[in-house]
Write a structure and sequence with these properties.
5 helices, 48% helix, 4 strands, 194 residues, single chain, globular, alpha+beta
Length: 194
C-alpha cells in the first residue's frame, strides 16, 4: 500500500468533514426523522476528521504546536464540554433488549440517494435500529453513516430548538460551533501541511 501524501491525508480528513457537515445540515432541516441520524453523523465523522488530521503528527514535529493553537479555545469552551457529554451519550452501548439483527445488502439503499464517498455496503436494523451505509475510514477502519436511527440514541437532557430546549442543552448551536471549528482547522491544515 502506497503511503498517502500530506495533501491526501488532509483531503481524506476533508471527506470525513463533509459527512459531519451533512449531519449538521440534517439536524437543521425540517425533516425531524433525520435529526438524530444527523447528530450521530456529525459527532462520529467530526471525530474521524480530527483523527485523520492527527495522522500528520508522525510526519511533522510542529504538529502538536499547530494543534494546540487550533484547538486551544475549544477545549475549555462550556459548549464543547457539553458536546463531549452528548457524544458519550449518543455513542453509548445499547442496553439489552434494544438490539436488532444486522442486515447488509450491497444493492440496497437505492431509495436513499447516492452512497457517501467510501461506502462499501448498505445496512438496516443494526444494534441501534439504524439504517445507512458502512464507510471505510482513512486507515481502513469502518464506521456507520446513518440515514435513519431509532429514538433510542436520543441523548437524555439534550434536545432541539423546536422542542423548547434550554439554550445550554440545545444541540444545534453546539454542533454548529463544532463543525465551524473543524472547517477552520481543515483550512489551516491545508495551508500548513499540504
Amino acid at each position: 500500500m502506497q503511503r498517502m501524501s500530506n495533501a491526501e491525508l488532509v483531503e481524506s480528513a476533508e471527506d470525513m468533514f463533509r459527512l459531519a457537515e451533512q449531519g449538521l445540515q440534517w439536524m437543521e432541516a425540517d425533516a425531524k426523522d433525520k435529526r438524530l441520524a444527523g447528530l450521530r453523523n456529525a459527532l462520529v465523522f467530526g471525530r474521524a476528521c480530527m483523527l485523520g488530521l492527527a495522522a500528520l503528527r508522525r510526519r511533522h514535529p510542529g504538529f502538536d504546536d499547530w494543534y494546540e493553537q487550533n484547538w486551544a479555545g475549544m477545549r475549555d469552551d462550556p459548549a464543547m464540554k457539553r458536546l463531549e457529554q452528548v457524544r458519550q451519550l449518543v455513542m453509548r452501548e445499547v442496553r439489552p433488549g434494544e438490539t436488532a439483527t444486522d442486515l447488509m445488502v450491497r444493492s440496497a439503499g437505492r431509495g436513499f440517494g447516492a452512497p457517501p464517498k467510501g461506502a462499501r455496503a448498505f445496512f438496516t436494523g443494526d444494534r441501534i435500529g439504524g439504517t445507512g451505509w458502512e464507510i471505510v475510514l482513512p486507515g481502513g477502519s469502518v464506521e456507520k453513516y446513518y440515514v435513519a436511527v431509532s429514538d433510542s440514541i436520543r441523548p437524555e437532557g439534550f434536545g432541539f430548538r423546536d422542542e423548547g430546549t434550554p439554550e445550554d442543552a440545545c444541540l444545534e448551536p453546539m454542533v454548529t460551533k463544532y463543525v465551524a471549528h473543524l472547517r477552520e482547522m481543515l483550512r489551516s491544515a491545508r495551508e500548513y501541511f499540504a
